[in-house]
């Protein structure tokens, strides 16, 4: 046994009626979710009931990281840019910074995005005082035999009770007041009758889940005192979670346990808006990319300037070497004139005559 279908689909909301009591319903099929919805109020009771239908949506997001391309110079004494290890370190730092920012908020963003069909909680709520409630010993009636792990289901319902101060009660059935054919007014009357039979206070939340012939309906009825916590918005949150998990792969015990656990958390906490966080993250990524691009261009310009200076220096050195070689090749060597013959010298002749006469 178990719920009829698992798939995806959507729903719509109908009109509203006057009075002090709110009521609505939801239905689904085995292969897709088709639904109708309406809300109405009657003046016969001060308790509130509510129904809704919804569709799920999802979003995905992504980010772009820039890359740095360094310049090079084939000359033998070319000037290199900042070392690759420096650039790698800068890139790693930028990536880590972005991932840190994203990682800090990603779990909450992902959780919000995965269930954005759930009604957001827009007001702060205070837990109902325990003096208002007369506790019941049981938490559910399962006419369809769906629940096999009572402890798991009741843990989720007890959590809801602890967080909100309102004790929930779940009825799983395939008939309303003994019939498979009924309208919304009859369901509301039936819910009020059941409430009177089960509870001695106005501080309970009655959840009726009906499924028959591959169609399901879900209803909520809130006691008068419980309305201070489980208001229209809070009831819609509960019913949204039923819709959200109905087509999931969870078994019925886990499904309803998660409905009450997550409903309690959302009801008692104002749902944050993550749009501005996403915008800041994207802005940071853009700024980092622009800074990296600017840094790269600056390094390229400096590298080009230094390489040009090196080329000029190399050219000057080469020109100087060539002119030196040319000067050495064309220079004339001074050769002294040959020495005169000493015997042809007049002074020598005179000396010779002087010594001959001695």
Helical fraction equals 40-55%
Task: Please state the overall shape, judged from the principal axes of the Cα atoms.
Answer: rod-shaped
Distance between the termini: 162 Å
Number of helices: 7
Biggest sheet, open or closed, and with what strands and sense? 5 strands, mixed
Entry keywords:
358 residues, alpha/beta, 5-stranded mixed β-sheet, two-stranded parallel ribbon, 7 helices, 44% helix, rod-shaped
What does this structure look like?
The protein has helices spanning about 85-115, 150-165, 185-200, 230-245, 250-265, 275-330, 345-355, and strands at about 10, 30-35, 50, 140, 165-175, 205-210, 215-220. The chain is an alpha/beta fold and about 350 residues long. The chain has a domain at about 10-55 and about 115-265. The strands form 2 sheets. It has a 5-stranded mixed β-sheet with strand order 3-7-6-5-4, sandwiched between helices. A two-stranded parallel ribbon has the order 1-2. α1 (about 85-115) runs antiparallel to α6 (about 275-330). The longest helix is centred in the C-terminal third of the chain and has 56 residues, at about 275-330. The radius of gyration is 46 Å and the shape is rod-shaped. Residues about 5-20, about 30-45 and about 50-80 have low confidence and may be disordered.
How are the secondary structure elements laid out?
Layout lengths: L7 E2 L22 E2 L14 E3 L33 H31 L25 E3 L7 H15 L2 E7 L10 H15 L5 E9 L2 E8 L9 H15 L5 H16 L7 H56 L15 H11 L2
Helix pairs in contact: 1-6, 2-5, 4-5
